[in-house]
Amino acid sequence: MYTEQDLKLGLTQLNTFRGLRVIRDDANMVEHHEDWSNVRSPGRAKRRRPKHKQCIQICTTPRRDVLVSDTMLIGHTQTIDAIMKLMIVRNELQNG
């Protein structure tokens, strides 16, 4: 599953990366935002929102940041994968 290049970077099968334990948390590492595209008049809908139900959709997207403590790296799976790919590319460029 891991290549020699991954192991040189410090990524192991124990979900550690350079001494940090990697925790992939898809449930809590998302951002919630409102999609107002199905509303005919967003300004009017916002005014009427407290009294009348509006056609607003709640969407979730992965957070682009990670939480780092002394021993842990916590992030969404897509974000962690992007960081790992970036580190592999960076290491390849440095080692030429």
Q: Compute the average pLDDT.
A: 82
- The percentage of residues in β strands lies in 25-35%
Number of strands: 6
DSSP helix count? 3
**How many domains, in number, for the residues?**
2
Largest beta-sheet details: 4 strands, mixed
Residues in helices, as a percent range: 25-40%
Please state how the strands of the largest beta sheet are arranged side by side: 1-2-6-5
Q: What is the alpha-carbon Rg in Å? A: 20 Å
Low-confidence stretches: none
Shape: elongated
Q: What sequence of helices (H) and strands (E) makes up the elements?
A: HEEEHEEEH
Q: What is the terminal-to-terminal distance?
A: 23 Å
SS content category: alpha+beta
What does this structure look like?
There is one protein chain. By secondary structure, the protein is an alpha+beta fold. It folds into two domains: 1-29 and 66-96, no CATH class; 31-63, no CATH class. The chain has three helices and six strands. It has helices at residues 4-9, 42-48, 77-95, and strands at residues 16-17, 20-24, 30-35, 57-62, 67-68, 72-75. It has a four-stranded mixed beta sheet with strand order 1-2-6-5. Strand 1 and strand 2 (20-24) form a beta hairpin. The chain is elongated and about 60 Å long.
Show the helix and strand layout.
Layout: H1 4-9, E1 16-17, E2 20-24, E3 30-35, H2 42-48, E4 57-62, E5 67-68, E6 72-75, H3 77-95
Parallel strand pairs: 2-6
Antiparallel strand pairs: 1-2, 3-4, 5-6
Key features of this structure:
single chain, 96 residues, alpha+beta, four-stranded mixed sheet, 6 strands, 26% strand, elongated
